[in-house]
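User: I'm writing a short report section on ligand binding and want a predicted complex to refer to. Could you take this sequence and ribulose-5-phosphate and write out the structure as tokens? A short remark afterwards would be nice.
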Amino acid sequence: MGLDKKRRAAEAALAYIESDMVLGVGTGSTVTQLIEALKARKIQLSGAVSSSRQTSESLKDAGIPELDLNSAGPLSLYIDGADEATATCALIKGGGAALTREKVIAAAASRFICIVDDTKLVEVLGRFPLPVEVIPMARSYVARELVKMGGQPVWRDGVVTDNGNVILDVHNLRLKDPADFESAVNQIAGVVTVGLFARRRADVLIVAGDAGVRTFNAEPA
Ligand code: 5RP
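Assistant: Sure. The structure tokens for the complex follow:
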């Protein structure tokens, strides 16, 4: 059931893809549906920039050539999932621990399309614990700073990111002003990336539910 909605969200995003483009590709089970749809429809890309080792494997299986972001030039489109999204296209991401590369590719792309099922749509971000990638020696310090900011950080024990760092998942947040919170967390020494995508939010949010697919557009900055 959930996978069916993810597949429909992914298929709706195909309309934004032009053949022979270089596509930025996110991480997660919804993105896996996108890669499978690209393969099934035999859509030819000139290449893809991957946000994780997991996605690189899926791209390889689908026969899509992977390009390094440094040599790909300007990216016109990035497509990724999210853990939580608002109708104004602000997101929480990083449930799959790929938030840093995802944030870099989103920043580098002219257009960011986010694909989710309707269980991810919320009024206020924060029900999903906010992932924060931290360099290992700063873990306890950053956790104490996050407590001062009202959160309850929990170390995602055993997880090491593709960049060799650790993740703190911050519980008990209700992010009424996510852009300000994103800036504040970014100021903590030792933080590599906070999984809030409120400053560079999605440009288009595609939400698949039982009744069909809805599309939300971010307000122009
Ligand atoms: C990975 C992410 C994913 O986009 C997020 O976890 C959603 O995953 P899924 O599509 O499997 O629900 O941010 O870091």
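A remark for your report: The longest helix spans residues 2-13. Residues 97 and 126 are 17 Å apart (CA to CA).
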